[in-house]
């Protein structure tokens, strides 16, 4: 297994026979070096999207066309993408599990919002979600954009993720202190990777508070395109 941060909330995860691009935002992402795009997307098999906001969806359609791979996500959003852009999609819903190259991906709840910009203003495209990605003896919780929520109680108990990729930049999502509280109360992570931070001045710039709040947990401040192994 290999987890690679692409900046903001974008990740490349190699697990089982799948290479998953999570919430791909490459073009215009201040954290991502555009001259390394080919390296970041090479061999990708699926694109997972947590919701419709442009900082998560921006490159999904273009990559789906360029790589001839499907966009996977909540039914409403993938249906809109397929209808509007003619790309291959795999839509499912909360509680559902799909098999992607041997990895089991279960959609779980998140607490945020989900819309796309249109010439007529924002348009809702289904609900915001997170994912539990199971394979190679690990379960990765990709929180998506979310605040703390009571659903994390049963999500941690049922899925037992050992790796947490947590949106923790504040302003739009949990901040580092709230992410630490959620991780400590609801989960038993061995590794935590923060995301959705450092991108803009409005977001938190350091994971120091998260690390201090989770003694005994391996908290990794990711570096763009530097592989992380569990």
What do you see in this structure?
- This protein is of the alpha/beta class.
- It is 23% helix and 30% strand.
- It is built from 7 helices and 15 strands.
- The protein is globular and about 45 Å long.
What would a concise description of this structure say?
The protein has 230 residues and is α/β, with parallel strands linked by helices. It has seven helices and 15 strands.
Layout of helices and strands:
Layout: E1 2-5, E2 11-15, E3 18-22, H1 37-41, E4 46-48, H2 54-57, H3 60-67, E5 71-74, H4 75-85, E6 89-92, E7 97-100, E8 103-109, E9 115-118, E10 121-124, E11 129-135, E12 138-142, H5 151-159, E13 163-167, H6 176-186, E14 191-195, H7 208-213, E15 218-219
Parallel strand pairs: 3-4, 4-5, 5-6, 12-13, 13-14, 14-15
Antiparallel strand pairs: 1-2, 2-3, 7-8, 8-11, 9-10, 11-12
What class do helices, strands and sheet pairing give?
Answer: alpha/beta
Cα-atom radius of gyration: 16 Å
* CATH homologous superfamily identity: Ribonuclease Z/Hydroxyacylglutathione hydrolase-like
Which stretches are poorly predicted, pLDDT < 50 over at least 5 residues? Answer: none
- CATH-scheme architecture: 4-Layer Sandwich
Q: Give the tally of structural domains.
A: 1
The largest beta-sheet arranges its strands as 7-8-11-12-13-14-15
The separation of the N and C termini measures 7 Å
What's the mean pLDDT score? 96
Strand content: 25-35%
- CATH fold category name: Metallo-beta-lactamase, Chain A
Q: Residue share in helices? A: 10-25%
> What is the helix tally?
7
* Inertia-based shape: globular
- Please write the string of helix (H) and strand (E) elements: EEEHEHHEHEEEEEEEHEHEHE
**Main beta sheet:** 7 strands, mixed
Number of strands: 15
* CATH C-level class: Alpha Beta
């Amino acid at each position: 297994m290999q987890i690679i941060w692409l900046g903001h909330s974008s990740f490349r995860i190699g697990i089982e026979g799948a290479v998953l691009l999570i919430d791909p935002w490459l073009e215009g992402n201040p954290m991502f070096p555009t001259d390394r795009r080919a390296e970041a997307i090479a061999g990708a098999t699926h694109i997972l999207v947590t919701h419709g906001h442009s900082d998560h969806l921006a490159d999904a359609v273009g990559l789906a066309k360029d790589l001839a791979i499907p966009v996977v996500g909540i039914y409403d959003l993938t249906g809109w993408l397929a209808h509007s852009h003619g790309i291959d999609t795999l839509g499912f819903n909360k509680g559902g599990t799909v098999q992607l190259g041997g990895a089991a991906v279960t959609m779980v709840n998140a607490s945020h919002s989900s819309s796309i910009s249109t010439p007529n203003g924002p348009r809702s495209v289904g609900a915001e979600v997170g994912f539990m990605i199971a394979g190679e003896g690990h379960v990765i919780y990709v929180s998506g954009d979310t605040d703390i929520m009571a659903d994390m109680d049963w999500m941690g108990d049922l899925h037992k993720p050992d790796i947490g990729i947590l949106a923790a930049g504040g302003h739009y999502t949990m901040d580092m202190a709230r992410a630490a509280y959620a991780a400590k109360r609801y989960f038993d992570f061995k590794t935590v990777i923060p995301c959705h931070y450092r991108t803009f001045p409005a977001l938190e710039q350091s994971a120091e508070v998260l690390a201090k709040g989770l003694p005994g947990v391996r908290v990794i401040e990711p570096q763009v395109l530097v592989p992380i192994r569990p």
